[in-house]
Amino acid sequence: MKVFNNILFLFFAITIAACDDILEKDITTDVINVVTPKEGHIVESNIVSFQWETLKGANKYRLQIEDKNALLIRDTLTSKTFLKLPLLPGNYKFKIRGENLGYESKYTTLTSFEIKSPTSLENQLVILKSPYSGFSTNKNNLTLVWDPIKIAASYTLELYDVTNSNVLLFSKEGITASTYSLDSNNLKTDALYEWRVKAVNATSVTDFNKATFLLDTTPPNAPQNIFPNNADTRKVNTAIDFSWKLDSDSGIIKSPIDYYIIEFATDSDFSRGLESQIINTTSCQKTFATTGTFFWRVKAKDKAGNIGLGYSKPFSLLIN
């Protein structure tokens, strides 16, 4: 009976392991149907719309674009079946395939299209370069940068405070450069901001293009050590797991954490035998090659550039 139970357990284990493969549809012989652009299509815009039909069994799509010299200039993975991408005038080819965790479909046949310099602004968008959406900063002086459009006479810029009811803070017309500097007169408080730019000439105008950024001047809190416990004992030449946690800071805007700095020393003042590591998560491993008492602490830095208010309370660790 014991042998039978072991065999039965092994059967179920193999069956469960195989289920992961069964859940993913084999799409290796499938081909996506492209909606647009079609072969030979001429686009009179600096923004190209790519669209294709959903492929059953695919949860991601890979779009690759080549220039006239067959050089890959764009390799984009998306879960959508529609993308708008900026491209300069010229001749291009593209192909698309579907993907899931286990399989990839065939690429579509390379499709050629051409982008011509538009004579009107109506079908164009101003390409916003910096700051990109999701950018975080702790500085209230910031330069906005966008790509110029040849037939534009000027640009209109708007700045909104999204955090505070999406209020319009600033609007300026007639900008002839493709940059504009913001300062503390514009960025007065921590908030999520949205900037919008449109191009204008005597006969036409683009729609506004927009991007967001975060102003966050509140530093992260000091982390709290979790493991090993204070005054714990561990063996020399053995990998030791360290972990800590971080409570949210008190600021209006809470930028994501960029990294943690963990420090090790042989004294509680961290003046002797100091070692430090940069860690992207709230845990790490370390092996001590010598015996003795060590101390460890952690500090955080967020993506806005704010350094934490302080280190975590040091914990001691005896290595024997």
From TrEMBL:
Superkingdom as given in the UniProt entry: Bacteria
CDD domains: FN3
Signal peptide: none
InterPro entries, per database record: FN3_dom, FN3_sf, Ig-like_fold
Protein name stated in the entry: Fibronectin, type III domain-containing protein
Organism in which the protein naturally occurs: Flavobacterium columnare (strain ATCC 49512 / CIP 103533 / TG 44/87)
Lineage: Bacteria, Pseudomonadati, Bacteroidota, Flavobacteriia, Flavobacteriales
